[in-house]
Write a structure and sequence with these properties.
homodimer, alpha+beta, Beta-galactosidase, Chain A, domain 5, TIM Barrel, ten-stranded antiparallel beta sheet, eight-stranded antiparallel beta sheet, 15% helix
Chain lengths: 677, 677
């Protein structure tokens, strides 16, 4: 990070010619002129404002920092100099929701300094893209600002209206994570919330506040400090400091994605364009994959993580799951509860008993790994830390070296706790540094990472493509447990327009026994946690909720005699392009994605209301013919009392064909368009 | 109240024969069997559960009280005796949204007592109606429970699912009132909220929690005490006590309205049936009315409440508003800022300077009242108290006597402050008693009451029909001021299914200058507070948001050359019956109401989305013919940038005619069906 910082510092000195009389108000427009940032010095404060198609989005909002042990850096400023740049490049993702990403933006770098006193300086870099704007701070090397402790970042987002927002709460003492159901309210009703925060301005546009390139800083929540004003709320170190650093220093980008309608928000690449290019030269070892695992059985109460009579991670059980993976073309099998440390209060002790190399006696890791390898399957190694970061970091090299020797290509990490044993916040700078260390160490050993209870995605995957996916929201596991009744039918229609804008999510779809009969054979009541979708909607989620690693979440027993399983066998996990065909936040969404082989997959989901749409296939290339394999809600399907019926049919389609997509309450539809060759 | 209490106590002793071996679980069903309450003693606690059409709505929820200075009354209980009753009667409203109300219910009275210790007793009365269930506590006269101080009411509402709720926050320190925009979230995300609370269970039914007959108790908010469990949160006295009383004592009813769909919630009469019959023998002096007033001019910045250059309440100005009222058939004219006390910090001083009899020098109250009377108009006297309750109560008799002598028939009260000077909560028992005193005193002087910043309606109007209407939500005034941009287009579509279920609301519709050009002539920007509806929607609100007093809120200048004013002249404020033709909470609603003369009025409103519906007029009596006078959104109408266009048309309709109702974004439609005679 410090090396990284110095580079920017050098660059800074290089690119900023001194203008003797700099303008006091500067305008930066996106390449198409749609988005405009206006930067000004107003009463000694540096402010920025944002407009979209000549409509104000953000009114002048001030910038700066509060430090512990030093005066605020916010007032009494003068403009020192500024510089502009324009870029228009494209880059390719090794894997993703879209193959080629265009990065076209205008850039304005503004350097300001205090007129008197400490005469400290800082730089703000603004970038204007056609799909939004962003800014970040640079704190250059200077006499009166060396090592520092940020107590508050004073960036403001002053909205020019009172938009409707979809949000989850931040800093709930009981659960400092992202695993909440969404609430919706006008901005003026917010307290403290997580990002990405999606805001629908009355009469449009739709705006998403988030961050990019979170490398050595605290994750950003947003606190409302005025009727329509938000400010970053940074997760603290144990001593309350938010961010520790030393100049030269650079902050993450604050991103303001802007789209005419919610459906224009996807694919969301603004954050990717603001991360650095890949540090991994040869990415061929990084494997997007479908996987199954010994996991849902524990959530559903059939198995336990700790060893004992119901222990899920046994050699025999693992082989059954590997057999299923091999038989259905899945590349990975996850086995949770394989390693010692689960017995006893592993959460209260911050997982100090966890070994990441020693398996339970009833689980022969070496034999299982060999068994998998012989069948073309790779184990997904599970590393639950319980936020015992020290314990995990001490074992990182030995554990990852072991996994590599077993032919393993990926790990699933877990951070089930609200803070570290030392009291550092779940999403603070301390944990940001830890996650970076895990990613970089994993890359060294040819391992990819799928993090659960993570810090929110800020585009790390561009720089470290082995950062495949993460949780960071209320996933499918809540349909098996928790006292609040599982995820409501609208949940995924909100996730698509909120959490998923940050990046891939390992939502773990594919539960086929929707009433959780489980081993007992007894159906759960509607008021008990169980899956609140139809089976067709479970299939559609593979297309709608993007992730390069997609789980077949259910226990293997649930997939027997299930013709609908064919769709999950067929569906891709890496895409050439993505089209959102329709959608409304919290109500429904229909997504089409093109696989590398030219096949298209369509996923449509609805909330508790039945819906029908006519969807023109105008995105198909002229001349090409496709066989549409349709998995639709069957007769009488209903998430509440009849979730299982699926009707499978097929027919020929081509560009211009109009598909009728009808969905049951809480239902969905999954379609494969198989290209004729 | 004490007299009232004793009566119930006497009744209690009379109706409860002692059963030697009472059942430990009792079942009470609504007349149609749809709603069932199951009462049980479970481990020494009294619990109740509620089901609707055999689907669990509330799981067993316990009952009881915590006292200051005495042990909890909740555990170690045994059943003493029980009694049942069934009633099926009807009663007529002197005015209302429906003329005749049927009260058909089953009743179960359960008396329990502590096995040991103080051996205190209490009674719970359960009632099951076809439109919901309710319960209340009685604390009978007994040796070990005389004077008491309730610190918590321990009633639980344990939901059998995690419903979607529409809520406003309770006990915000900055604003202990009801004037918030609505948020929506699953029940599991609530903190502390106001009632009525509307909860849509996944897969139905829709449930509304509220209270009825709030006579001498603290108003009930709801706090979440478990993932899906709510409990009353009572507003306190200054010393923290929630409720003070002495046996015999009776609490308000806790009402649980239950309907298959949201549109079945209206008309909502459950609470009315749980209030006592009218104490006013001859109600002919009580006047539902349309009124205008010197009011919006202050909110829009043209006038001031205090005296001075821009003082709104001048004799001349009042006469202009009276002339307009007379010319347009309005019965009332409100004049705010007429009385001394507005100059200076009237909020900070809790209105101690307010006189309710002395007018400002530039306002000749006697002359204005006479001028009004000569034109068939009555003044609506305004009494803003700033929560200076003592000051107001000391002047009540002299003020109301004065108003009566001036031929005035109604007062509009105001309570702009978060608590009383003594620190009692805005909605606590102290204020409940005050509001009762005002209603009863007003009745004595032949005055009706329209309370702003009130306590929520709990059905007072049945017992005191001079309690005409109140605010108790974020009303139209917020479209003129406040930093959060006015009420969003969806606001009224939520109010209809939440706040309005409690009773009439003085929302003050009828703003015709939607961009608030006002005197300056300068339109406000969309991000500034202004009315976020089309003009047609303003008309529709007179039908959708029921109140027996409806204001023409705008300044008189805004009504000149406005053909649409005819609808407001025509629309009724008292109804024979009410039908909800369609609707979805937060999206849209269409309501039809029949006036006393056989005319029907239809109001339809939508949120920010344009919508069109085919509405069959199957509620019209066969054979009758009507002229439909339609006020629809005009070409290109849009709440954001083109709110004014209205198209007025007419045609013949009858039973079976299907009306096409098309609405613009943020729009609506208002229709008068004039019966041919």
């Amino acid at each position: 990070m410090h090396f990284h910082g110095s580079v920017l510092c050098a660059a800074l000195l290089a690119v900023l010619p001194v203008h003797p009389l700099p303008a006091q108000s500067m305008r930066l427009a996106s390449p198409d002129g749609r988005n405009v940032i206006t930067v000004a010095l107003d009463g000694g404060q540096l402010t920025y404002a944002v407009s979209h198609r000549d409509r104000a989005v953000l009114l002048p909002s001030s910038l700066g920092f509060a430090f512990r042990g030093a005066p605020r850096l916010q007032r009494g400023l003068r403009l020192l100099d500024s510089a502009r740049a324009e870029r228009d490049t494209s880059w390719r993702q090794p894997w993703g929701e879209v193959r080629t990403v265009r990065d076209a933006h205008g850039e304005l770098r503004v350097r300001v300094g205090e007129r008197n006193g400490l005469r400290r300086e800082f730089v703000v870099i603004f970038r204007a893209f056609n799909d939004g704007v962003a800014f970040r701070y640079e704190l250059p090397c200077q006499p009166n600002l060396g090592a520092f402790a940020i107590s508050e970042e004073l960036s403001e987002f002053v909205f020019a209206d009172n938009p409707k927002t979809w949000w989850i709460p931040a800093n709930r003492p009981a659960m400092d994570r992202y695993e909440f159901l969404y609430a919706s309210s006008p901005l003026s009703m917010l307290d403290s919330v997580r990002t990405p925060l999606t805001l629908e301005m009355q009469g449009g546009p739709v705006v998403v506040l988030h961050e990019a390139a979170l490398v050595d800083y605290a994750a950003m929540d947003l606190a409302r400090v005025g009727e329509r004003t938000l400010r970053p709320a940074l997760s603290p170190w144990a001593d309350g400091v938010k961010v520790r650093g030393r100049t030269p220093f650079v902050t993450p980008w604050r991103t303001i994605q802007i789209a005419a309608t919610a459906t224009d928000l996807v694919p969301s690449v603004l954050g990717l364009n603001l991360n650095e290019p890949s540090r991994v030269a040869d990415t061929r070892w990084i494997e997007p994959m479908k996987y199954n695992g010994i996991w849902w059985g524990m959530h559903a109460g059939m198995y336990t993580w700790p060893s004992g009579q119901k222990h899920g991670a046994t050699t025999e059980n693992a082989k059954r799951y590997i057999d299923f993976a091999a038989a259905n073309g899945l590349r990975g099998t996850l086995v949770e509860g394989w390693n010692v440390g689960w017995n006893g209060d592993w959460i209260g002790s911050y997982g100090k008993g966890f070994s990441f190399t020693r398996a339970y006696p009833d689980y022969d890791l070496t034999a299982v790994a060999r068994y998998a390898k012989e069948r073309g399957v790779t184990l997904v190694m599970h590393n639950e830390t319980a936020m015992g970061v020290g314990n995990y970091e001490r074992q990182l090299d030995s554990a990852f070296a072991l996994y590599k020797s077993l032919g393993v290509t990926s790990v699933k990490t877990g951070y089930v706790n609200d803070r570290t044993a030392e009291g550092h916040a779940h999403t603070g700078q301390y944990m940001v540094r830890h996650h970076r260390k895990v990613i970089e160490t994993a890359a060294k050993y040819g391992l990819s990472v799928n993090a659960h209870e993570p810090i929110m995605d800020t585009g790390e995957r561009r720089t470290w493509p082995n950062m495949l996916s993460r949780e960071g929201a209320r996933g499918g596991e809540y349909n098996a447990g928790g006292p609040d009744g599982g995820n409501p039918p609208e949940h995924e229609t909100i996730l698509f327009f909120t959490r998923l804008l940050a990046g891939p999510m390992d939502y773990t779809p594919g539960v086929f026994d929707l009433r959780l009969k489980g081993s007992s054979g007894a159906e759960r009541r509607p008021d008990q946690p169980r899956v609140r979708t139809t089976l067709a909607k479970q299939l559609a989620l593979y297309v709608v909720l993007y992730s390069p690693v997609q789980m077949l979440a259910d226990v293997v027993e649930s997939y027997t005699n299930q013709p609908a399983l064919q769709f999950v066998r067929d569906v891709a996990v890496d895409w050439e392009q993505t089209r959102v065909l329709n959608g409304r936040i919290g109500d429904y969404v229909t997504v089409a994605r093109e696989a590398a082989n030219g096949d298209w997959f369509i996923g449509a989901i609805t909330d508790e209301e039945a819906r029908a749409f006519d969807v023109p296939l105008d995105f198909l290339p002229a001349g090409a013919r496709y066989t549409a394999e349709v998995y639709a809600d069957g007769p009488g399907a209903h998430w509440l009392n009849n979730p299982q019926p699926v009707t499978i049919s097929s027919g020929f389609v081509q560009a211009g064909t109009v598909l009728r997509i009808a969905m049951a309450p809480g239902g969905g539809q999954a379609i494969r368009l198989r290209k004729e060759r």
